[in-house]
Design brief:
The protein is elongated. α1 crosses α2 (41-48). It has a domain at 39-70. It is 74% helix and 0% strand. It is mainly alpha-helical and 70 residues long.
Length: 70
Amino acid sequence: MLLIGQTDTKRWYFQTFWWTNVTLQISLWSIIDEVASKPNGLFVLSMTFKTCNPLNSVDVLKNYLVSMYI
């Protein structure tokens, strides 16, 4: 019978969560970049994320999202 210790379980959970999160973030950045590159893309992102002011750069949105995650 194979027993997994609590430390191994925590390590597995962290590694799984970390890779899932990295994959999701890369996908999200790609989608945001794609939308931003289109005509009125920054306006669409401003409306989607309900920003207080219109976005003038996609980096402003990305920095905000990163700050919310941390």
